Amino acid sequence: MIRRMTLFDAVVIGGGQSGLAAAGALQAHGRHPLVLEAGGAPTGSWARYYDSLTLFSPARHSALPGMPFPGDPDRYPHRDEVVAYLAAYAEHLGVPIRTRSRVTSVQQASDGFTVHTDADTLHTPIIVAATGGFGRPHRPDLPGLATYTGTVLHAADYRSPTPFSGQHVIVVGAGNSAVQIATELATVATVTLATRQPVRWFPQRPLGRDLHWWLKTTGLDTSPLGRLLAGGHRGAPVLDDGRYRAAVAAGAPRHRLMFTGLHGNTATWTDGSREDVHAIVLATGYRPDLGYLHELGALDADGRPRHRGGVSITHPGLGYVGLELQRSFASATLRGVGADAARVVARLTARRTSQVEPAR
Ligand code: FAD
Fold first, then answer.
1. Dihedral in degrees, nearest 10, Cα atoms 70, 74, 80, 83
2. Keywords in UniProt for this one (predicted)?
3. Which of 120, 223, 341, 348 is deepest in the core (most CB within 10 A)?
4. Do the beta carbons of residue 24 and residue 339 sit within 8 Å?
């Protein structure tokens, strides 16, 4: 097969909110980026998140640079509204986006990088890797999980409670997704929320204002200091308007500390009691999926990017947008990627004073 080699002055890998924010920032610096998106639309992973998902931030704090989120700014938009918003944002930017174009590897070239997709080979001096911090579902090594005979699925594959009607389900995890999924499942199933530590709650509206108003007003949201809010290895607390805490207090879902083992389809709890369980939902987080940068040598042994504030410390010209806690508490959110993209792109373009002739 003869492959075309085309020159672009910047390539953005990933067409979700992070990729679009990066493309917008590159345009603002006079570049002509090409966005490569593996899926069929520049709307990121949103359409694959569970059906009932609504944003934890109100519309006014969920927008990308230059285009407000439409509708009542104080409401918490549904997943499908985010998909529609991102599609409209891509139109608004007007950058070329190649969908169904998965990057398979990146190599160092004499003045930049060679980018391989399933169909093309491109050359560029600047790459922004924006394939999300949530591409690789994390499955912890729980005692007995490997031999458990019931259904095991990651929250990434959970859509709605319907298939679990009448079952006993354990949801593992202490974060927002775990609590939301467990509470929703508890309307049709017997649900146990299993956590290693007690669940930590945070009010959605302290002193009558949405938390995101406070974060923005104090500057904590985009300050590196705000990373402390993420709770370190314990993870961010669960945002609650009172609904979830009340559900757990009412036992639907019931909360227990993590089971000590699984045998067949039975879970053993810390007090020695045993229960049959039909399904286990792992709401245990995600890791970035940057395998296409492996050959380049930009990742550490665990597959995590080696960077400072989103700028690669291994390869000049390579940057990242959308990594969790990349620079601040808000880095991997709709409201945070714009500021990160602007910073990363400013640093990438500053060292590239000579422009290459973009492809037409
Ligand atoms: P993604 O949306 O994952 O987009 C990455 C894109 O890259 C995808 O379209 C993918 O197809 C593409 N891609 C991947 N690999 C390749 C490749 N090799 N080549 C080309 N393209 C590739 N944030 C909020 O602000 N508010 C919320 O309420 C909120 N709720 C969340 C709920 C859940 C369950 C999760 C998991 C996250 C939530 N987030 C929320 C966090 C974050 O905003 C989302 O995860 C968001 O989808 C991240 O956007 P992204 O563009 O960084 O990554």
1. 50
2. Monooxygenase, Oxidoreductase
3. 341
4. no
pTM: 0.92
pLDDT for position 43: 98
Stretches where the chain sits below pLDDT 70 are 1-5, 226-235, 352-360
Q: What is the CATH number of domain 5-136+286-349?
A: 3.50.50.60
**Residues at CB less than 6 angstroms from ligand 1:** 13-19, 36-39, 44-46, 49, 53, 55-57, 62, 102-103, 130-132, 134-135, 177, 292, 322, 332-335
Residues of the chain with CATH 3.50.50.60: 5-136+286-349, 145-200+237-282
pLDDT at 261: 97
Nearest residue (by CA) to ligand 1, atom 53, is 132
Q: What's the order of all strands across the beta sheet hosting 168-172?
A: 151-154, 279-282, 168-172, 190-195, 254-257
The CATH H-level (homologous superfamily) assignment of domain 145-200+237-282 is: FAD/NAD(P)-binding domain (3.50.50.60)
What are the counts of helices (DSSP H) followed by strands (DSSP E) for the chain? 6, 23
pLDDT at 357: 39
Question: Are 236 and 228 in contact, with CB atoms under 8 Å apart?
Answer: no
pLDDT digits (tens, 9 = 90+) for 259-269: 999 999 999 99
From the alpha carbon of 104, which atom of ligand 1 is closest?
Answer: 18
The helix or strand, by DSSP H or E, that contains position 203, with its residue range, turns out to be strand 201-203
Distance (Å) of CA 72 to CA 76, 81, 86, 186, 287: 9, 12, 17, 30, 33
* CA–CA separation, 125 and 62 (whole Å): 31
